[in-house]
């Protein structure tokens, strides 16, 4: 069993924020792979399903970004999973918009959701980094991250989320390189 966590903030006012692209990725995966409707569990929304032959749990913490680790930690302990079963989908300032990279472990790069999970479980979980680009100056980061996607970004974002969901089988199988390559190919 694997636990895939999408990072975001709960509430309609945050729904289209760049910071919520982790939530968006999980929603796309759940839809494409026919996951069960969300249930309120672990201070968040949990959906159960299968990707290929693998049982996957999708969790969207409702604790707000800065406290995501509490929700993730509860789920990991409840299902008696190790951090090797955890994959976190999140926005990444240091990646060009609409690019996707997967990495195992690492730092938090100032991302409060990652920092919270790191505090609860350590740094050795897999991350699916979804690029949102950097606004150019650190004083503009908060507004950029908490800003909504622009109208011109909606179609590329939809294509990106569709590609992530379509290629999720490779992630479930642990073939991160094939996942990244096939997402990039779909996006041309």
UniProtKB/TrEMBL annotation:
Residues the UniProt record annotates as site (Discriminates between blocked and unblocked aminoacyl-tRNA): 9
Record-listed E.C. numbers: 3.1.1.29
MF terms in GO: peptidyl-tRNA hydrolase activity; tRNA binding
Domain of life according to the entry: Bacteria
Active-site residues annotated for this sequence: 19
Cited Gene3D superfamilies: Peptidyl-tRNA hydrolase
Location relative to the cell: Cytoplasm
Main location: cytoplasm
Keywords: Cytoplasm, Hydrolase, RNA-binding, tRNA-binding
Residues the record lists as binding tRNA: 14, 64, 66, 112
UniProt-annotated site: Stabilizes the basic form of H active site to accept a proton, residues: 91
PANTHER family, alphabetized: PEPTIDYL-TRNA HYDROLASE
NCBIfam families reported for this sequence: pth
Protein name (database record): Peptidyl-tRNA hydrolase
Organism, scientific name: Sphingomonas ginsenosidimutans
Taxonomic lineage of the native organism: Bacteria, Pseudomonadati, Pseudomonadota, Alphaproteobacteria, Sphingomonadales
Gene that encodes the chain: pth
């Amino acid at each position: 069993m694997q636990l895939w966590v999408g990072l975001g903030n709960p509430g309609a006012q945050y729904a289209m924020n760049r910071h919520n692209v982790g939530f968006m990725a999980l929603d796309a995966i759940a839809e494409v792979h026919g996951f069960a409707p969300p249930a309120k569990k672990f201070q968040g929304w949990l959906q159960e399903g299968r990707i290929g032959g693998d049982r996957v749990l999708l969790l969207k913490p409702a604790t707000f970004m800065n406290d995501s680790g509490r929700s993730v930690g509860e789920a990991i302990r409840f299902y008696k999973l190790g951090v090797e079963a955890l994959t976190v989908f999140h926005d990444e300032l240091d990646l060009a918009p609409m690019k996707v990279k997967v990495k195992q472990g690492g730092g938090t790069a100032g991302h409060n959701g990652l920092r919270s999970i790191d505090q609860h479980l350590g740094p050795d979980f897999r991350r699916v980094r979804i690029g949102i680009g950097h606004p150019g100056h650190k004083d503009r980061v908060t507004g950029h991250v908490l800003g909504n996607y622009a109208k011109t970004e909606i179609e590329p974002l939809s294509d990106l989320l569709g590609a992530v969901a379509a290629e999720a089988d490779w992630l479930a199988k642990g073939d991160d390189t094939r996942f990244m390559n096939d997402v990039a190919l779909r996006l041309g």
